């Protein structure tokens, strides 16, 4: 369970995350949605200790993130950000191998190799594993990063806008993998999503943020409805039920 | 873990292990190859045109030791600096580290006068210098690199401005110094490969051995830092702590090389990038030795050229900065095209 207690993060005098308290249960897919600048990514970075904050506390399974050892946390929670700039050339397999660093500190054991193979296979990257990252398409590269996170084998997996710059096919592919990670491997997945319809189709819980505050938290039915979405986005979004999925029609 | 499928997994593990083995072997071979070239050049440097062995060998030997120390210090500090700043274009020298060393040295002479200095042992002065250097360099560059994602060109600009600023301050203070003091300063300031500060060799070696032993255990964590700050933290590296420690190590290494032979701005850039290009690996355990060997080859080979072909009509720093400067422009242009 991840608990966020009264967390505030300010840039100058502007609070980008404003006294947020939030509980995310184990298991399932939780999506953070909200307009640009709502503080979704910032909150994700705070939970995963990438960003310092001004007030409050974050607990993972009852333990304070600020007081835990970074290497212990790396076996419990993983984060994948949107921007990943690497200044050297790496192959997919080398990248995925880094996922074992918290366990082996760079000296890969036989067991590590098995995890690496399994992660590569899970993301269907076997044929590409010795290709360099800069030779891959955006979708393949994103899959390689997800494979690294799988290889890290943490209970909690956080992804910051994993669908950015992906076409429909690859976006669906990534979201299906997230679902499978929850169902097959018992992971807890937390995502920042921009497309409410992806959030609607794949989430168990949706957290809606606006101006640095949590405005709604609940099941898909509770959030993906015209009234709640109006609170979040200040726009009228009719909801249609298509094949049992709640789809917001916001294009016109 | 459920996601392991035993049969296919084992087969893949074997081929992956083989692949790994082959890669390791080729990396080692490449290092041996570099070491052979380096060794051959050093042997040539020591033995070419000797008329009086008793006179030539100790003198040349000290020069070779200086080149080994400087080569290693520049290579190691540049590779480390590029990793923690996540770029391949900047090195401590380009961003003004060695000008800072010169400035500190001048300020000390200015404040305490040449007589105190002449009485002070050179080793002690060196230690004080390095201490101040570590302090200022880590403060200044921590401030500079604290914010994530600072634009690379902004840093190049700031670095060049700092370098010039420190340089101008240095010459300004030198003009105000008592001429007697200046003579004391002069023979320390204008070290080059032709006139190595040889009485510092011992303490310089000690400093290098110490910081190297201290920092060897960072090498594997530095591999992870190549993925960027966020990924490094995600994988459990205490990033801020590691960067601070590396900054201290870099400050010591740069102090050593600047004290021995003076500033060589573009050398680190050249050898670090050549090492990456030649080795095709991200592993610091291989890149650092390769960069060091390449820099020893460049220094010894270059010095041979300067002494035997150009017969001292030019200096090694000039040649290195000429080639390195062109390479720097090439890298900058390549980076621009990529963006």
What features would you describe in this structure?
The complex is a heterodimer of chains A (252) and B (339). Chain A is of the alpha/beta class. Chain A has helices spanning 40-47, 70-73, 92-98, 101-104, 110-122, 138-152, 168-185, 196-202, 220-223, 226-233, and strands at residues 2-11, 14-24, 28-33, 55-60, 63-64, 77-80, 156-160, 188-192, 205-210, 213-218, 239-242, 245-248. Chain A has a six-stranded mixed beta sheet, sandwiched between helices. In chain A, strand 7, helix 7 (168-185) and strand 8 (188-192) form a beta-alpha-beta unit. In chain A, helix 3 (92-98) packs parallel to helix 6 (138-152), helix 5 packs across helix 6 (138-152) and helix 6 packs parallel to helix 7. Chain B is mainly α. In chain B, helix 2 (53-84) packs parallel to helix 7 (201-215), helix 2 (53-84) packs across helix 11 and helix 7 (201-215) packs antiparallel against helix 10 (239-261). The chains are: A alpha/beta (252), B mainly alpha (339). Chains A and B meet through helix 2, strand 6, helix 3 and helix 5 of A and helix 1, helix 8 and helix 9 of B.
| Rg of Cα set of chain A | 18 Å
Strand order of the largest sheet of chain A: 6-7-8-3-9-10
What is the CA-CA span between the terminal residues of chain A?
A: 39 Å
Structural class of chain A: alpha/beta
Helical/strand content category of chain B: mainly alpha
- Sheet with most strands of chain A: 6 strands, mixed
Strand content of chain B: under 5%
Q: How many β-strand runs of chain A?
A: 12
Unreliably modeled segments of chain B: 1-9
Largest β sheet strand count, sense and barrel closure of chain B: none
| Average pLDDT over all residues of chain B | 83
Offer a few descriptive terms.
heterodimer; A: 252 residues; alpha/beta; 6-stranded mixed beta sheet; 4-stranded antiparallel beta sheet; globular; B: 339 residues; mainly alpha
């Amino acid at each position: 369970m991840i608990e966020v207690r009264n967390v505030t993060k300010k840039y100058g005098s502007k609070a980008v995350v404003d006294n947020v308290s939030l509980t995310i249960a184990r298991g399932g897919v939780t999506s953070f949605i909200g307009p640009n600048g709502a503080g979704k990514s910032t909150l994700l970075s705070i939970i995963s200790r990438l960003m310092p904050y001004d007030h409050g506390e974050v607990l993972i399974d009852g333990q304070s993130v600020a007081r835990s050892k970074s290497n212990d946390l790396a076996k419990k929670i993983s984060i994948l950000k949107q921007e990943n700039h690497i200044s050297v050339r790496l192959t997919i397999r080398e990248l995925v191998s880094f996922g074992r660093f918290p366990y082996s500190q760079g000296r890969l054991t036989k067991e590590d190799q098995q995890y690496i193979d399994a992660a590569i296979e899970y993301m269907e990257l076997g044929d590409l594993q010795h290709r360099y990252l800069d030779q891959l398409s955006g979708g393949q590269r994103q899959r390689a990063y997800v494979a690294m996170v799988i290889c890290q084998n943490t209970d909690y997996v956080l992804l910051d806008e994993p669908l950015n710059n992906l076409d429909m096919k690859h976006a669906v592919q990534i979201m299906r993998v997230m679902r499978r990670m929850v169902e097959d491997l018992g992971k807890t997945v937390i995502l920042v999503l921009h497309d409410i319809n992806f959030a609607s189709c794949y989430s168990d819980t949706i957290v809606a943020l606006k101006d640095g505050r949590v405005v709604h938290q609940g099941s898909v039915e509770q959030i993906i409805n015209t009234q709640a979405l109006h609170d979040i986005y200040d726009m009228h979004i009719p909801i249609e039920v298509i094949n049992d999925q709640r789809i917001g029609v916001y294009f016109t | 873990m459920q996601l392991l499928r035993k049969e296919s997994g084992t087969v893949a593990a074997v081929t992956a292990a083989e692949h790994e083995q082959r890669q390791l072997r080729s990396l080692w071979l490449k290092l041996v190859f570099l070491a052979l070239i380096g060794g051959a050049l050093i042997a040539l440097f020591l033995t070419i045109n000797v008329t009086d062995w008793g006179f030539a060998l100790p003198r040349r030997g000290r020069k070779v030791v200086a080149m080994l120390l400087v080569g290693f210090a520049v290579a190691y500090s540049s590779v480390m600096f590029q990793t923690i700043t996540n770029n391949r274009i900047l090195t401590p020298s380009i961003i003004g580290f060695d000008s800072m060393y010169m400035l500190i040295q001048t300020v000390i002479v200015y404040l305490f006068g040449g007589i105190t200095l002449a009485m002070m042992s050179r080793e002690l002065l060196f230690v004080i210098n390095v201490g101040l250097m570590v302090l200022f360099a880590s403060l200044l560059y921590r401030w500079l690199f604290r914010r994530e994602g600072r634009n690379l060109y902004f840093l190049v600009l700031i670095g060049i401005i700092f370098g010039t600023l420190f340089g101008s301050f240095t010459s300004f203070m030198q003009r105000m110094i008592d001429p007697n003091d200046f003579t004391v300063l002069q023979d320390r300031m204008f070290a080059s490969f032709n006139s190595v500060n040889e009485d510092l060799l011992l303490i310089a070696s000690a400093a290098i051995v110490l910081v190297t032993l201290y920092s060897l255990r960072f090498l594997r964590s530095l591999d992870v830092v190549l993925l960027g700050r966020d990924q490094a933290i995600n994988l459990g590296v205490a990033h801020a702590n590691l960067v601070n420690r590396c900054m201290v190590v870099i400050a010591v290494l740069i102090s050593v090389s600047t004290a021995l032979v003076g500033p060589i701005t573009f050398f680190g850039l050249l050898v670090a990038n050549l090492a990456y290009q030649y080795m095709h690996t991200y592993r610091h355990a291989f890149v650092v030795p390769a960069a060091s060997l390449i820099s020893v080859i460049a220094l010894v080979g270059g010095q041979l050229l300067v002494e035997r072909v150009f017969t001292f009509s030019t200096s090694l720093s000039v040649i290195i900065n000429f080639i390195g400067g062109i390479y720097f422009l090439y890298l900058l242009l390549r980076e621009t095209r990529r963006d």
